[in-house]
Amino acid sequence: MSPRFHSLRIAEIRRETPDCVSLKFDIPGGLADEYRFVQGQHLALRTQLDGEELRRTYSICAGCDDGELRVAVKRVPGGRFSVWVNEKLKPGDAIDVMTPEGRFFTRLARDQSRHYVAFAAGSGITPVLSLVRTTLAREPHSRFTLVYGNRRQASVMFHEALEDLKDRYLTRFRLYNVFSREEQDVA
Question: Residue 89 and residue 94: Cα distance in Å, rounded?
């Protein structure tokens, strides 16, 4: 089936950092199959602002088994779309959302025992978070190591979600945070 837009309501907006929100979409039952996704895929969002059509693409940050469709939008200085999402969009509003696309994934197999390693920085965590969540849930014998770079602790997107994954998969998930502008106690 070729990708196409549908108007979807925003079910929830969650503040992830001071300059980033995540959007959870309400998927009507009749569209559930069209919005089924593979870890690492993305969605195109479309809206009209001041009479101009704007489209932006965002990676899905939910795991395939999380029961939700969610993307994160980081505010970009001067970015009309990202500023609008972060400051004006509210639960219940509708936005055009294209069906999932993309091939940034590895096929998973329940009986496999692999060690995955990912490097992400800033908002680049969004597709990787989907990969981590889905891989750990669907490959119970596999491990995942994530090296995640940010400027400061306060700019870490999905901090709580990552800590929850560490707690849930104690022996299978390793997270290494790297901060480029945070004061360190040791050189």
Answer: 9
CA distance 168 to 97: 32
pLDDT per residue as tens digits for the range 50-88? 999 999 999 999 999 999 999 999 999 999 999 999 999
pTM of the full predicted structure? 0.91
The string of pLDDT tens digits covering residues 103-150 is 988 999 999 999 999 999 999 999 999 999 999 999 999 999 999 999
Contact between 92 and 38 under an 8 Å Cβ cutoff? The reply is no
Longest Cα–Cα distance of the chain, Å, equals 56
